[in-house]
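Design request, tokens follow.
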């Protein structure tokens, strides 16, 4: 299974942890943007290159994992995954994103978006069982 993980730059350690668990189970990470973390300084050319690699990573994936807390680009990645008809897993540590209030988005409720609740290990277990 090929996967891409979208999340906040500040969340790179959890992304790396989830990636490691999935790769140890035989999954393939299509693009690991955490190689740029922690971010010090970026210029327009570097950002363009990263954006192109992230887009390609999403296109090459079978599943896109949205790991909260998300960053400002994460909803763009969610939109690309939905438009490319990828299976999407939206993962949060509790159910606060999955209530109909100010923390949610209409796109979290689409049929190809599966909501997962738990820590990194619990999420990994759910992903491997899907």
């Amino acid at each position: 299974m090929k996967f891409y993980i979208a999340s906040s730059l500040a969340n790179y350690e959890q992304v790396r942890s989830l990636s490691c668990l999935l790769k140890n189970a035989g999954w393939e990470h299509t693009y690991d943007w955490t190689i740029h973390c922690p971010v010090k300084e970026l210029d327009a050319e570097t950002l363009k290159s990263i954006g192109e690699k992230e887009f390609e990573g999403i296109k090459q994936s079978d599943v896109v994992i949205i790991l909260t807390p998300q960053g400002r680009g994460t909803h763009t990645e969610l939109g690309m995954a939905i438009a490319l008809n990828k299976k999407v897993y939206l993962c949060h540590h509790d159910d606060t994103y999955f209530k109909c209030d100010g923390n949610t988005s209409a796109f979290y409720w689409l049929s190809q978006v599966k909501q997962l609740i738990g820590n990194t290990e619990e999420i990994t277990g759910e992903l491997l069982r899907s």
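Comment from the thread starter after seeing the answer: thanks! The beta strands are 2-6, 28-29, 63-67, 87-92, 113-117.
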